[in-house]
Design goal:
about 350 residues; alpha+beta; Rossmann fold; OB fold (Dihydrolipoamide Acetyltransferase, E2P); six-stranded mixed sheet; 21 strands; transport; membrane; cell inner membrane; ATP binding
Length: about 350
């Protein structure tokens, strides 16, 4: 089910004028604070009536200013996951979950409580109260409540922002599982979250869409400003080949071996791996005598300089496009430019667990 959004709305000095098409999967609205992400999601939710535009989920038109259509929130078949779980403290987890069914439309397929609880790993929590749950557990219950409303679309407004890194790592795999369950419009300003989750990325800047497309393409573009040079990186798609006794996992990416600290997925699993630009070193020839295990031959696609001494070099390899953050002095000394052959060197231990996720 696809989502079509076209919204124009002014709030004081801020003008939101954005349009995009979201295919099935997770579409991430990506941008800095104040770019219009939450305003756009609230318009889809019906919490805000835009001054002009049209919003549709599949065949259902939620808003059309020209036709005078504005469905109230309770008729939109939406699930909303906020930054904090917002569970009812006086109800058990089971009762919080079943509350979502009150909003399921008549005739809609009823989600099975047992299946949802198993998928989200909250079966043992059903008789507990929210006050006895961790932050990550509360968010999983909130996701389950949204699913049990049988939504046509789930809205998630920075659902991991209030969690520490350990709780984020706990929740991310559950959102990965949801990609095949129901379309999700997901708000984030974290490049790592986008790399793990996004099917499609819509980049917002000052209320306008400045870039949209598949996650691998958008994040590999150094011109995408919400990322910034320090957080720039690229996504490689890989398959787990085997796990070694020394604690490394061997993956295959575009016919090239890729060694990472041991991943939890079984051989044959397909993964996304985010490689940060500052963890990539470039060499004109194939280097010898290095401790780094991952050396990928490639060709420079582009060299983009910044205001300071740094530059971002995008390199096309058999495993996919990589970004490398180097100094302009190094780029000039190596003679790097479009079409120049080089090798990208990646330290195995530089790839953090949160940068590896399922496809």
């Amino acid at each position: 089910m696809s989502v079509s959004v076209r919204v124009s709305h002014r709030q004081g000095d801020f003008l939101l004028d954005a349009a995009f098409e979201a295919p099935p999967g997770i579409t991430v609205l990506f941008g800095r604070s104040g770019s219009g992400k939450t305003t756009l999601v609230n318009a889809v939710a019906g919490l805000l009536r835009p001054q002009a535009g049209r919003i549709a989920v599949g065949d259902q038109v939620l808003f059309d200013s020209a036709a005078g259509v504005f469905l109230p929130t309770h008729r939109r078949r939406l699930g909303y996951v906020f930054q904090e779980g917002r569970l009812f403290p006086h109800l058990s987890v089971r009762q919080n979950l079943l509350y979502g069914r009150w909003f399921a439309p008549k005739g809609a397929r009823r989600e099975d409580l047992g299946r949802v609880a198993e998928m989200l790993g909250i079966g043992p929590l059903l008789e507990r109260r929210p006050g006895d749950l961790s932050g990550g557990e509360k968010q999983r219950v909130a996701i389950g409540r949204a699913l049990l409303a049988s939504p046509g679309l789930i809205l998630a407004d920075e659902p991991l922002a209030a969690l520490d890194e350990a709780r984020k790592a706990e929740i991310l795999p559950y959102f990965e599982r949801l990609r095949a369950e129901v379309p999700i419009l997901y708000v984030s300003h974290s490049a790592a979250e986008v790399a793990r989750l996004a099917t499609t990325v819509v980049v917002l800047e000052k209320g306008r869409v400045v870039r949209q497309g598949p996650a691998a393409e958008v994040l590999a573009d150094p011109a995408v400003t919400p990322v910034g040079a320090r957080a720039a990186g690229a996504i490689l798609e890989a398959v787990v080949v085997r796990h070694h006794a020394d604690g490394l996992s061997e993956l295959q990416a575009g016919g090239h071996p890729l060694f990472l600290p041991q991943v939890g997925q079984a051989p044959g699993s397909r993964l996304r791996v985010r490689i940060a630009a500052h963890d990539v070193i470039l060499s004109r020839g194939r280097p010898d005598g290095l401790s780094a295990l991952n050396i990928l031959p490639g060709v420079v696609h582009e060299v983009r300089g910044g205001e300071g001494p740094g530059a971002i070099v995008s390199v096309d390899t058999g495993a996919g496009r990589l970004l490398a953050r180097v100094t302009r002095r190094s780029a000039e000394a190596l003679g790097l430019g479009p079409g120049v052959a080089c090798h990208a060197v990646i330290k195995s231990v530089a790839v953090a667990p949160e940068d590896v996720g399922g496809r």
